[in-house]
Amino acid sequence: ETSPPATQASTAQSQALFSRAQRVTPGGVNSPVRAFKSVGGSPRFIREAHGAYLTDADGHRLLDYIGSWGPMILGHDHPAVREAVADALSRGTSYGAPGEGEVRLAETVTRLTGVERVRFVNSGTEATMSALRLARGATARKFIVKFRGNYHGHADGLLVEAGSGLMTNAEGHLGRAAPSSAGVPEEYAALTLVSEYNDPVALDALMAERGHEVAAVIFEPVVGNAGVLIPTPNFLAALHRVREHGTLLIADEVMTGFRLSLRGATGLLGLTPDLICWGKIIGGGLPVGAYGGRADVMNYVSPQGPVYQAGTLSGNPLAMAAGLATLQVLENEPALYVKLESYTAQLAGGLSAAAREAGVPLSVNRVGSMLTAFHQDAPDGSIRTYTDAARSDTAAFARWFQQMLAGGVYWAPSQFESIFVSAAHGEAELSRTLDVARAAYLHLGR
Ligand code: PLP
Predict the structure, then answer these.
(1) Domain assignments of the chain as residue spans, ordered by start
(2) N or C: which end of the chain has fewer CB within 10 A?
């Protein structure tokens, strides 16, 4: 069922909530990109979500391409997830002692992804932060390498050249670790070395010079946080070479895990990282993160080993139930990945064609159900680095975004984000999206 393209005339309730929120919460939101700062206007406050749609506080139905920034791969309020959470709820919400849910989810994750041990935490941020501590503990080295424009959550040492939400303000220079946030001491940032994504020569050179003191190289196997960037085969080969220096390779699959395939980007691209971090889908819309790898590395984690990491709510039974139900649906219905691929490929083709017809420069990067349409004049698929992505016309994107929202299509409110398609997106949603997008490009082209 599709409601007529809403004119989204009144946003009075959202605006009233935003005013109240700004009086009690910094910027009125609990995560910065939600404030719409890079596209202008006031954010929609969401009342409920079902399938591919959000309903905002004024009752407008919005076709959702954010999917809570990735977790909602099955669509909102999926019956299997809802029932699993309700069932868990009837048995209490938190024990502070181990339970079977954690074992079942860990068994599922290890079986699907090939890691030998996994530890659950409460967010992607905790997953990457803990994986880095583990890498430092296991190698007795201090430095880490990350890539410009890759985001790994907001732990101090990772808020360096950190992409998306930070991309419009970032003024860092390659090779020098520039914190992307106030409050990150330069001494912390100095332990983070930065290289350019998709530049194997730069990575080899950095490792030749500093490799002996680098505990880990952490990377997004497909970048979502500078907009979508797809790794080149040469870059992937250089990533694997970092091991020759005794450095651990950490794939941050918080966004890509269980999205690009059941085995994530690791499976899709044939990667063999030492450690993998997860978030988002692994919790099915509840707060879960995880990190895992070979037993010999993971056995450094407390209480087995000397690297401390803990959590009052880690392995929470409701969250484990939501994650497990989500992974079970994905495993039992492999056709879902085919559907996601087909929908998103058609979306990419449709956006390209519509922009071309309207004379709007656009370059689309897509893999699986992740997509960014960069407002710039470059062939589709040719944007490979942070520097390439940063050339986009963010003002044109913002105008297009506002037209989409006015037409009832809720795109990610930043040029430097991926959108996420869900299994609840079907033919009706695709044609409606392309209708609204076509009108929005024509409006821009005028
Ligand atoms: N790593 C990647 C690749 C992410 O995309 C994100 C969040 O978007 C994170 C880590 C941080 O996860 P969280 O927001 O759950 O802390």
Answers:
(1) 12-64+334-445, 79-332
(2) N
